[in-house]
């Protein structure tokens, strides 16, 4: 995955300082989500005091991303999606909002898949009661929001594979919406295979309806959303650093040609068989 250049390859401010880090959250009607995201941003600021850190939402919460970018004027910023896989928001909505602003921006990759994300998932499972040494009857359902985009599902499957390698047990990705299997379906599949201890790992950045519904389907333990885990703050900064230093990227101002290429790629991916998750 490569960062997308929106208006300029320059990601330093006019005064030579660090470009702003704009964390782009989805937004939620659950008030716990906004407070969690704000607390996560405070962790990021504590790790990197010299970097201006801002928040923008795709929808549902203020500040909305266009308003955050307007406040930055023509300054430089790196937009880091607080999203765990590729999908419509990462590939279309966020770049289009960035292109409509005066800011000199670069859009970073989403947070997953990445080893730091797996660190946070494992830690949340441990907090929920996952044993140090899991047996052959243990398994995990990796619960995420879901997307119709095949690249999003491929990213979630890769995260599941990495978590499986870390834990030494089967990990099956499942979705709250827009994709199959659902969490209850994945639980039933693993139970039918003889796994009596099936945990649900919340692959969500903050509390909300999807996270609550998925946790309710757990037959054993369910981990909390990733929230303010230290690895999440470090991962946001890692994506910021990578995007800031990227020399290439896709200029989303190519407009229709870029959109056509994206649609062609997605259609090709949809026709390709995807490997079964571990």
Automatic annotation (TrEMBL):
Keywords: Lyase, Metal-binding. It holds the Pfam family CbiX. The keyword Metal-binding applies. It comes from the Bacteria. The keyword Lyase applies. PANTHER family: FERROCHELATASE CHE1, SIROHYDROCHLORIN FERROCHELATASE, CHLOROPLASTIC. This is Sirohydrochlorin chelatase. It comes from Streptomyces violaceorubidus.
């Amino acid at each position: 995955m490569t960062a997308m250049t929106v208006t300029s390859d320059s990601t330093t401010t006019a005064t030579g300082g660090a470009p702003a880090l704009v964390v782009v959250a989805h937004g939620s009607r659950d008030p716990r989500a906004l407070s969690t995201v704000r607390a996560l941003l405070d962790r990021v600021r504590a790790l990197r005091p010299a970097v201006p850190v801002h928040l923008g939402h795709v929808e549902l919460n203020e500040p909305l991303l266009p308003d955050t970018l307007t406040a930055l004027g023509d300054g430089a910023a790196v937009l880091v999606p607080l999203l765990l896989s590729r999908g419509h928001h990462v590939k279309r909505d966020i770049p289009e909002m960035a292109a409509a602003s005066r800011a000199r921006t670069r859009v970073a990759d989403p947070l997953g898949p990445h080893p730091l994300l797996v660190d946070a998932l494992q830690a949340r499972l441990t907090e929920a009661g996952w044993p140090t040494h899991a047996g052959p009857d243990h398994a995990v359902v990796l619960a995420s929001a879901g997307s119709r985009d095949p690249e999003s599902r491929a990213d979630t499957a890769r995260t599941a594979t990495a978590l499986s390698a870390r834990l030494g047990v089967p990990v099956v990705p499942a979705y709250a919406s827009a994709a199959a299997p659902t969490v209850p379906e994945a639980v039933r599949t693993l139970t039918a295979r003889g796994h009596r201890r099936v945990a649900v790992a919340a692959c969500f950045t903050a509390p909300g309806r999807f996270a609550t519904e998925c946790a309710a389907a757990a037959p054993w333990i369910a981990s909390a959303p990733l929230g303010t885990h230290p690895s999440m703050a470090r991962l946001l900064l890692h994506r910021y650093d990578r995007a800031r230093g990227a020399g290439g990227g896709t200029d989303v101002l190519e407009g229709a040609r870029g959109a056509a290429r994206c649609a062609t790629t997605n259609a090709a991916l949809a026709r390709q068989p995807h490997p079964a998750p571990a």
